[in-house]
Amino acid sequence: MEIYKKFSFDSAHYLPNLPEDHKCRRMHGHTFNVKVYITGTVDPEIGWIMDFSEIKTICDPVIKQLDHRVLNDIKGLNNPTSENLAKWIWEKVKSELPGLKKIIVSETCSTGCVYRG
C-alpha cells in the first residue's frame, strides 16, 4: 500500500542551460507542489503505514530550504529543473524515509516530474 504527503512552496528559478531566447532561461517563479510517497505494510494494530506527522517532520526542513528562495542559489540546484529538484529532495530525505517510493514535483497544475530513485 502507498501513502503520500503533499507539500508546497514558492520559489524563483531560471534554467541556465536553455537557449537565450527560451522563456524559462529568464528568472520566473512557481508555486511548486511536492508529493512524497511511502510504501509499506499497514500495521495491523495501529492501522497505518506511517504517521503523516512523521513524514512532515522529516520533509519540512527540506521544504523550508526551498521556500521563497532562488533555487539556483542553493547548493546542488544550479540547474533547477523539476527533474533535478525531485532528485535533490529525494537525496535529502531518503535516509530517514526507508519506505520512500517516489517523489512528484509539479511546477504547474499540468506539468510535473516523477522520481523513483
Blueprint of the fold:
Elements: E1 2-13, E2 28-39, H1 52-66, H2 82-93, E3 100-108, E4 111-115
Antiparallel strand pairs: 1-2, 2-3, 3-4
Report on the structure:
Strand 3 and strand 4 form a beta hairpin. The chain has a single domain, classed as 2-Layer Sandwich (Tetrahydropterin Synthase, Chain A). With 117 residues, the chain is α+β, with helices and mostly antiparallel strands. The model has no long low-confidence stretch (mean pLDDT 98). The protein is built from 2 helices and 4 strands; from the N terminus they run E-E-H-H-E-E. It has a 4-stranded antiparallel β-sheet with strand order 1-2-3-4, covered by helices on one side. The radius of gyration is 15 Å and the shape is elongated.
Question: What is the gist of this entry?
Answer:
The protein is α+β, with helices and mostly antiparallel strands and 117 residues long. The chain is built from two helices and four strands, in the order E-E-H-H-E-E.
List key phrases describing it.
Tetrahydropterin Synthase, Chain A; alpha+beta; 117 residues
- CATH architecture, by name, is 2-Layer Sandwich
Helical fraction equals 10-25%
The major sheet is characterized as:
4 strands, antiparallel
- What would the average pLDDT be, to the nearest integer? 98
CATH topology: Tetrahydropterin Synthase, Chain A
Number of E-state strands: 4
Q: What's the CATH superfamily, by name?
A: 6-pyruvoyl tetrahydropterin synthase/QueD
Oligomer: single chain
Beta-strand residue fraction: 25-35%
Q: Low-confidence segments, ≥5 residues, pLDDT <50?
A: none
End-to-end separation in angstroms reads 18 Å
- Widest beta sheet: strand line-up: 1-2-3-4
Series of H and E elements: EEHHEE
**Count of alpha and pi helical runs:** 2
Q: How many separate domains make up the residues?
A: 1
Shape: elongated
